[in-house]
Amino acid sequence: MSSISYSEKIPNNVHLDADPRLQRALEKWQPAFIQWWLETGPERFQQEDVYLRTAISADVAGWAHFDYVKMPDYRWGIFLADPDPERKIGFGDFMGQPVWQEVPGEFRNPLRRIIVTQGDTEPASVEQQRLLGRTAPSLYDLRNLFQVNVEEGRHLWAMVYLLHSHFGRDGREEAEALLERRAGNPDKPRILGAFNAPIEDWLAFYMFTMFTDRDGKFQLLALAESGFDPLSRTTRFMLTEEAHHMFVGETGIQRVVRRSAELMKAGADPRQSGGVDLPTVQKYLNLWFTLSLDLFGGEISSNAADYFAAGLKGRPKEEQFTDHVALNGFYPMDVPEGGRLVRQEVPLRNAMNEIARDGYVDDCQRAVDKWNKTIEEEGAAFRLALPSRRFHRKIGIYSTAPFDPEGRQMTGEEWQRRRDEFLPSAADFAFVRSLMQPVYQPGKIASWVAPPRTGINRLPLEFEYVRTGG
Ligand code: BYC
Predict the structure, then answer these.
(1) pLDDT exceeding 90 applies to what percent of the chain?
(2) What is the per-residue pLDDT across 219-273, written as a single tens digit (0 to 9) for each?
(3) Residue of the CA atom closest to atom 2 of ligand 1
(4) H-helix or E-strand containing 303?
(5) Ramachandran sector of residue 351 (left: φ over 0; alpha: ψ -120 to 50; beta: rest)
(6) Of residues 82 and 7, which shows the higher confidence score?
(7) How far is the CA of 192 from the centre of ligand 1 (A)?
(8) Would the CB of 205 count as within 6 Å of ligand 1?
C-alpha cells in the first residue's frame, strides 16, 4: 500500500525526496505547468470552489477523496501503482525476462516517442475544452468537466515524471515542449489528429470523452503491459482515473438521447423543441468515432510490430491472447486496391494496431447498444449505429479513398455532394451551439439533456458542485 506524501511541493509516492536532482528539476517545471494551466486551462471558474476528487493514495481505498478545491490549488502529483517485484515481460522477443526498471539503451528513442505522444494528448484535451465552462448544462456537468481537466493535467505530470527521471536532458526538453504545443494551432499543433479538432459545444465534449478518452483507455492498457516497468505502473494508476472520463461521455450521450427520445414520444420534433434531433447525434457520433479510430494508427504498421517485438507496448489486456510472441500468426484484412477491397493476410505483429482497434470498436458498440435501449424504452423509432471503420479515415489504408458509413467506396464527387448527410454541417454545429446556454442554478438543467440518474459521490443533483457565487 503506497500512501502519497502531500507534505511535499509535488505530492508523490515515488520518494522524490530521495532524489534531490530530480526533485529540483520537477520543481522547476512546476511553475511552467501552472502558467500553462492558467493560460490554456479552464477560462472561467479558476477561483471558485469545485467539488473535486483528489487521489490521496494509490490503493483502492485512497484514490478518491472528495472536497471543494480551487482548481489552481489542485494537488497535481506523481502516483504510480505499487510495484510487483516478480513482474516479467509478458510478450514479444523478451517474453519471460524480468521487467526493466531503467530504459534499455537500444529502445530509448522509440520509448521516448511513445511517452511523448501519450503525454502530448493530455494537455491537448484541456486546451480543446477551455471554453466549455461558458455553457455547461448544469453545475453537475460543469464539475465533471473540471474533474476531467485536472486529471488530464495530472496525467501530463505522469508522463513528465518519466521523461525527467529516465531520459536526461532530452527528456527535460521534451517536457518543456509538451507545454509549448497547442491544440489546433497550425504553427505548433499537438501531435495526433483528434487533439487538434475543436470542441466547441457540450455534445462534442460528451463525444470526446466517450470516444477519444476510450482510445486513451486502450492505449493505456497497451502501455500497462510494457516491459518498461515505470511506464506500466504509471499507466495502471492513470486507468483508475480514466474510467470516470468515459462515464461522463457515455452517460452524457445517453442523457442527450433520452431527452430527444422523450420529446419524440411526446410527438415533438426535438430540433423544434429545445432538444438535439437524433440524426444530428448520429453525425456527431460519426465524426468523433472516426477521429478516434485514427488514433490507433495504421492498420498495417511496422512501428507497432517493432514496439511489440521490443516489449515496449503490448495488446490491451494481453492476457486474453494465447500466443504472446505472435511471430507466426496472420490477421486477415480487407485492403483497398484498384477500387476494390482485397483480402490480405497481414503478419500478426504488423496488425497490432488493428487488433487494439477491434477491442475498441466492440467496447463502443456496447455503449451504442445501451443508447439504443434507452431510445427503445422511450418508444421512439430511431437507431444509432457505429459507422464502418473505413468511413472518414485520415490515417491508414482506408485514408486513400472516401467510403460511406456502410463502408462502400465512393467517388470524390459523391463524397463532396453527400458529406453533410454523414458529418455535422456548419448549420448543424450552429444549431447545437445555439442550444448551449449555461444553467448554473443548483439542481437545474438545460432543456436539451436529461438529468443524471444520480449525482457525484452519491450526492443529489441539487448539490452545489461548483460554487459559482451567482
Ligand atoms: N494523427 O505506424 P503508424 C489519450 C503517425 S489518447 C497523426 O500508422 P503507429 C487521451 C505516426 O505517428 C491515447 N499522426 O502508427 C484521450 C507515424 O508517424 P511517423 C494517446 C498519426 O506509430 C483523451 C505515422 O503516422 N496515447 O490518452 O503504430 C484525453 C505512421 O504511424 C496518427 C497514445 O497514442 C494520428 N491519429 O501508432 C486525454 C499511445 N496515427 O513515424 C488523453 C502512444 C499515426 O511517420 N502512441 N500517426 O512520423 C502510440 O502508440 C502511437 O504513436 C500511435 C500511432 C498508436 C498513436
Answers:
(1) 93
(2) 999 999 999 999 999 999 999 889 999 999 999 999 999 999 999 999 889 999 9
(3) 301
(4) helix 302-310
(5) alpha
(6) 82
(7) 6
(8) no
Three cell numbers written together for 102:
531503467
pTM: 0.97
Q: Rounded to whole angstroms, how far apart are CA atoms 63 and 56?
A: 5
380 lines ligand 1 (CB under 6 A): no
Please tell me the distance between residue 114's alpha carbon and the centre of ligand 1 in angstroms: 8
Ligand 1 close to Cβ of residue 297 (< 6 A): yes
Q: Is 226 in the pocket of ligand 1 (CB under 6 A)?
A: no
List of residues 6+ apart from 165 with CB closer than 8 A: 19, 22, 171, 230
Strands (E), 55-199: 65-70
Going by alpha carbons, the residue nearest to atom 20 of ligand 1 is 118
CA distance 50 to 74: 10
Task: Give the number of other Cβ atoms within 10 Å of residue 60's Cβ.
Answer: 9
User: What span, in angstroms and rounded, lies between the C-alpha atoms of 25 and 164?
Assistant: 7
Strand pairing partners for 337?
Answer: 340
pLDDT in tens, 268-302: 899 999 999 999 999 999 999 999 999 999 999 99
Q: Which residue's C-alpha comes closest to atom 45 of ligand 1?
A: 303
Residue-wise pLDDT for 335-373, tens only, equals 999 889 999 999 999 999 999 999 999 999 999 999 999
Structure-block grid coordinates of residue 286: 460519426
The radius of gyration of the chain from alpha carbons, rounded to an integer in Å, stands at 22
For 29, counting Cβ atoms within 10 Å of its Cβ (0-12 exposed, 13-18 middle, 19+ buried), the class is buried
Residue range 83-103, pLDDT digits in tens: 999 999 999 999 999 999 999
**Alpha-carbon distances of 54 from 62, 238, 436, rounded to whole Å:** 9, 13, 29
Ligand 1 binding pocket includes 196 (Cβ within 6 Å)? no
d(CA 400, CA 350): 19
Q: Taking each helix axis as running N to C, give the angle between helix 352-377 and helix 278-294, from 0 to 180 degrees, rounded to the nearest 10.
A: 170
Task: Report the distance separating Cα 203 and Cα 284, nearest Å.
Answer: 8
CA 308 – ligand 1 centroid, Å? 15
Q: What is the DSSP-derived secondary structure letter of residue 210?
A: I
Residue 100's φ and ψ, nearest 5 degrees, are -90, 135
CA-124 nearest atom, ligand 1: 38
Enter the DSSP assignment of 212: I
219 lines ligand 1 (CB under 6 A): yes
Phi, psi of 47 (to 5 degrees): -105, 5
